[in-house]
Design a protein that fits this description.
It is a single chain. The chain is α+β, with helices and mostly antiparallel strands. It contains 12 helices and 6 strands. The protein has a 4-stranded mixed β-sheet, with helices on one face. The chain has a two-stranded antiparallel ribbon with strand order 3-4. β1, α3 and β2 form a beta-alpha-beta unit. The two termini are 38 Å apart. The N terminus is likely disordered.
């Protein structure tokens, strides 16, 4: 549920920004607002996850907003509509809503302060998704894509982990990377995959506070060192009641890696193919957003390559005018 923690953090920050903007608007007065914002602009640079979707929805709903210009980012942070991450996130939103109603002056809780009960672990087994139902709550956005996905049985799910890579890299960036950087990217995916594979087998094991990211300054760290860093601050919980320590987990994971080591070469091929379809994944999401804007009254919508994709993987800006 690591993505959900980041997602909640984004939501809390965005709500704080919007609240301050609304307070400022109230102080300035409605008449002043109407005269100065009769042709307003909604814009954002690398608006993460749901933020781009929210900006677009606000743009189409506001008569005073006439231009939208935004570059999205972090497609994997778009809210999931199913799975343990979605359930956890919804639970936190409900708790936040009750807390806000009780006292609007209370500061919003940071991710480290929120619920960490046994049924809301940071890292636990993710059950299979229902392929007959939408995976994301904010994709697709357009009616065209929704109808197409509902009527075409061959339309599968956009996997959140594929979207994660599409939100973090590009072919141009990969071509310019050093051998060490490429090795780090492969190791990061391979080590994380081994950990997730072991957790998918041991469905009764939940790890909280597990830091699964491979540190950049340890790109040549072996799997044993990676697992030590993952478990350094982790806590373990077994729903089956079996007596399992972190040392046991470490030992089992090392043995698991030995058995799966032949998969490393296949992982290299998989990541290469994944990078080849990154542009397809991103173009699918951006096309859906363009259609959403057209369906809701925009007279002009275009996708502009605004930035250097070797420096900024998310380089396309969506421009819309009513």
């Amino acid at each position: 549920v690591l993505n959900a923690r980041l997602e909640l953090d984004q939501l809390q920050h965005n709500c704080g920004v919007l609240s301050r903007a609304m307070e400022m608007t109230a102080r300035e007065g409605q008449a002043s607002l109407q005269s100065s914002c009769s042709r307003g602009l909604v814009t954002g640079l690398h608006a993460c996850g749901n933020l781009t979707c929210s900006m677009m929805e606000s743009f189409v709903a506001s008569p005073s907003m006439h231009v939208f210009a935004g570059i999205g980012c972090c497609y994997h942070a778009i809210s999931l509509a199913q799975g343990s991450s979605a359930q956890w996130f919804q639970k936190q939103l409900e708790a936040e809503s009750k807390s806000t109603c009780a006292s609007r002056k209370q500061p919003m809780r940071r991710p480290r302060d929120i619920d960490d009960t046994d049924d809301c672990k940071d890292y636990c087994h993710q059950p299979p998704f229902d392929t007959t139902q939408p995976l994301f709550s904010r994709f697709p956005m357009s009616d065209f894509f929704k109808k197409h996905c509902a009527s075409n049985e061959r339309v599968g799910l956009l996997d959140p982990f594929s979207m994660r890579r599409a939100a973090a890299s590009s072919i141009s960036k990969h071509q310019l990377a050093s051998e060490a950087d490429r090795l780090h990217a492969i190791q990061a995916s391979y080590y994380r995959a081994l950990l997730e594979d072991w957790l998918s087998i041991n469905t009764d094991v939940c790890l909280s506070n597990a830091r699964t990211k491979l540190r950049k300054n340890c790109s040549h760290e072996d799997f044993a060192g990676y697992i030590e860093s993952v478990l350094a601050n982790a806590r373990i919980h077994c729903t089956s009641g079996r007596d399992l320590t972190l040392e046991d987990v470490h030992r089992e994971l090392i043995a698991h890696e030995v058995n799966k080591r032949p998969l490393f070469r296949k992982m290299c091929v998989f990541i290469t193919l994944q990078m080849a379809v990154e542009c397809v994944i991103e173009d699918t999401i951006l096309t859906d957003r363009c259609l959403f804007l057209l369906e809701h009254g925009s007279s002009v919508v275009c996708k502009v390559p605004l930035l250097d994709d070797a420096l900024s993987p998310r380089c396309f800006a969506l421009i819309a005018m009513k």
